[in-house]
Amino acid sequence: MGTGLPVTAPPSPPAVASRPMWAARAGLPLVRGMISFGALFAVWYALTAGGWVKPFALASPVAVAGVLADGIRDRTLLGHLGISLARLVVGMAVAGSAGIALGMLVGISRALAIFVEPLAGFFNALSGIVWLPLAITWFGLTWKTVLFVIANGIFFTVFFNTLVGVRSVPRLYEHAILTLGASRWRMLRDVLFPGAFPGIVTGIRLGLGFGWRALIAAELVAVTQGLGFMIFSAANYLRTDIILAGILVIGIVAIAMDSLILVPIERATVLRWGMYQ
Amino acid sequence: MNPPGRDQVPARRGWAAAAMGAAAGAGQAIAPFVFFTAAWALLVAVARWPEDVLPSPFAVGRAFGDVIAKGILPVYAGETVRRILVAAVTGIAIGIAAGFIMGLNDVTAGLLLPPLRFFQSLSGIAWLPLFLIWFGFSDKTIVVAVWYTLVFPVAFNTMLGVRTVPRLYRYAVLTLGGNWRQVVFQVLLPGAIPYIVGGVRLGIAYGWRALIAAEIVVGTGGLGYLIFKAETFHLTARIIAGMIVIGVLWYVTDYFFLRPLEEATIERWGLVYR
Amino acid sequence: MQAKISIEALSHEYFNPTTWQRVRALDGLSLTVAAGEFLCLVGPSGCGKSTLLNLVAGLARPTGGRILLDGRVVARPGRDRGMVFQEFAILPWRTVEGNIGHGLEIAGAPRRVKDETVRRYVALMGLGGFEHKYPHELSGGMRQRVAVARTLAADPEVVLMDEPFASLDAQTRNVMQEELVRIALGERKTIMFVTHSVDEAIILGDRVVVLTHRPGRLKASMPIDIPREARRWDVLGAEAGFVRYRQDIHRLIREEFDARAPAAGAVQA
């Protein structure tokens, strides 16, 4: 296996960063969440409303709520959000499918793996935002640059996790299906792909996380639209209310992607098949 | 179900065979890079793109020599390494402490987890505009952004590790007359170590990327700044040389330090709970 | 009866990466299996029984000799030789129904035929009510029944079984053995059944073949002359023949066990 970014290696303890299992174990998460978020807001409100912190250093919750409401009403915030999401979706579609396809291929072919794996390992160590300057050289300050950077980050994460997934499929399953008379295509469709699915889901989950982070970073410098641009340009005018509103939206999107898309997929597949110990 | 793995790892073999295998492995690992570089050189020679679009490997080599000769590379690489070290040392220490508190006390964990989960899903980069206002275009901004990115994976994994240690072991030590200090150092820490190391590896991986991104945005030295600045002067060869340094630094850190550490701890302690 | 499977001077060596040695598993084994015969293979552990089954299945190529199925050389796995593995090997991402019907699906059988066959085997194996469960929701015994049903539903001419009941608890194992006797009687398949349990070999087999210690050769071949009706655990003990077969086979295996040289079968690489 290559190095670089966390491909969650099967024998190691699960990396918590991505798995919401602790959330399920916490018990009464809603009530506790309300208490702690409430306390956080109270402190934030007290600091800002009490005048201990100046608005240009930290805007009050009221001001942030105002920015959010205005941004939704006049659609500027929605516009930035939409553009950022569209970039992520396109990046995920392109890089995710390429990563799955190549990961499956390299997982099946030993000859290909010997050649591709070391290279992919190095490029994985070098993926994402590091490509920004070169991407700007090639594509200028455009959406292509942003897309290149996030696709690059997503691709290697999905690729390596798919690879790990394929390799974790027991040989025994392949033998069993061979004695049922399966063709190579059948093997791929009925055994290797579903067998690799836990890895693929992990790859998509990590890839979305990396992609979203790389996207915000790239948007800070490379383009004139999107959430990253919105908060970075606000910094020039010391508009901490806009920055905090942007941060809030960025965080909510990250959590929503996980709990609204990935968790249901996982419930319908990997968990139902009993493939997490 | 826990089916057997696809590739059985050789458990034991002679040292001669092992050495031969290692040599073959090294050759196998280097060959693709040689081939890749050759293909790259050939592509540039045939396509004749201008050097600021895609320079040849030789131009990148010259650029590499140039940044070393001028003393830029050692200084900037030193900056980058210093930043990741500062952020890692403090981040790991605080992350482990926080993880222990959450792991031992369910009420604290229940209260802290929801907001922490939210903060964790944001990278330090999203906070960069705010940090810029607070700390200016300075070293502090970069280190804080990296620290922020790094601390959460360490804290969460430590918490999970502490929770994984069966309560029975704690009680066992306490009933033997042990005190809490002994419980922490003789039971919880060793038990949680594989998880902590996993968290550290993940955290440094996240932190490393955040560092490069922050250096690009903030622009006060470091390898991220080196490659970003080179872009404004269309020194594409220098960009690629810088990227290679960044890649190699991470590869070396991960391959020779983080991964062996993770494997060693899992090998030594990981079997306890299987 | 004509020979369904002819095994001719079969030898096989393979490389064991754990010990870094070449292992000679079979050495010039010759054996014929008649059409419709239930053949049980026993022998000391590591005598190459499983290797033999893998070779007949076509999952590995023999390094010497050949295997004929209906006079044609076996070269690769095929639908005509189904196999049941010791470790279940049913797919976790398919339901009980999905697993049992998998062979027919691969063969491209019409949906109606497939559904009907699946229903029949669900009933036969006592899996009613569990059609839509996933393997991880089943007990070990039920999983193995699914594995047996999957192989039989694909309707192969030859069924290869590699210690399929070894990891089941004693009661479940006995029930499965009796069921298999019943099914084998009904379907008249050619069956090669590997086991390390002598009792199991006697209750199931038309003939029991004992292999030598590794490298495996034919040690003895013993027809079991017990009527099918008497092959139930509650009456089998009373059969005088049963006790004698058992003593004979145990003695043959014991001889092999005692004759074992310290490093027999391990050829230096």
Automatic annotation (TrEMBL), chain A:
- Which organism is this entry from? Candidatus Segetimicrobium genomatis
Protein's cellular compartments:
Cell membrane
What is the name of this protein? ABC transporter permease
Q: Which Pfam families match?
A: BPD_transp_1 (PF00528)
A single Gene Ontology biological process assigned to it is: cellular response to sulfur starvation
User: What are the transmembrane regions?
Assistant: 29-47, 85-107, 119-140, 146-166, 187-208, 214-235, 242-265
Task: Give the chief site where it resides.
Answer: membrane
PANTHER family cross-referenced by the UniProt entry: ALKANE SULFONATE ABC TRANSPORTER-RELATED, MEMBRANE SUBUNIT (PTHR30151), TAURINE TRANSPORT SYSTEM PERMEASE PROTEIN TAUC (PTHR30151:SF25)
Q: Which key words are in the record?
A: Cell membrane, Membrane, Transmembrane, Transmembrane helix, Transport
ABC transmembrane type-1 domain: which residues? 81-261
Family to which the UniProt record says this protein belongs:
Belongs to the binding-protein-dependent transport system permease family.
The record's GO CC annotations read: plasma membrane
| Topological relation to the membrane, as annotated | Multi-pass membrane protein
From TrEMBL, chain B:
Q: Where is the signal peptide?
A: none
Its annotated compartments are: Cell membrane
Which UniProt keywords are present, listed alphabetically? Cell membrane, Membrane, Transmembrane, Transmembrane helix, Transport
Chief localization: membrane
Q: Which GO terms describe its cellular component?
A: plasma membrane
InterPro entries reported in the protein's UniProt record: MetI-like, MetI-like_sf
Domain ABC transmembrane type-1: start-end pairs: 77-257
Which ranges does the record mark as transmembrane? Answer: 21-47, 84-104, 116-136, 142-162, 183-204, 210-228, 235-253
GO biological process entries: transmembrane transport
Q: How does it sit in the membrane?
A: Multi-pass membrane protein
Q: Which PANTHER family match?
A: ABC TRANSPORTER PERMEASE PROTEIN, ALKANE SULFONATE ABC TRANSPORTER-RELATED, MEMBRANE SUBUNIT
- Give the family this protein belongs to, as stated in its UniProt record: Belongs to the binding-protein-dependent transport system permease family.
| Protein's recorded name | ABC transporter permease
UniProt source species:
Candidatus Segetimicrobium genomatis
UniProtKB/TrEMBL annotation, chain C:
- Which terms in the Gene Ontology molecular function aspect does this entry carry? ATP binding; ATP hydrolysis activity
What keywords does the record list, in alphabetical order?
ATP-binding, Nucleotide-binding, Transport
**Keyword field contains Transport:** yes
Q: Which Pfam families match?
A: ABC_tran (PF00005)
What CDD domains would the database entry show?
ABC_NrtD_SsuB_transporters
Residue ranges constituting the ABC transporter domain according to the UniProt record: 5-238
SUPFAM superfamilies per UniProt: P-loop containing nucleoside triphosphate hydrolases (SSF52540)
Q: Which Gene3D superfamilies match?
A: P-loop containing nucleotide triphosphate hydrolases
Q: What is this protein called?
A: ABC transporter ATP-binding protein
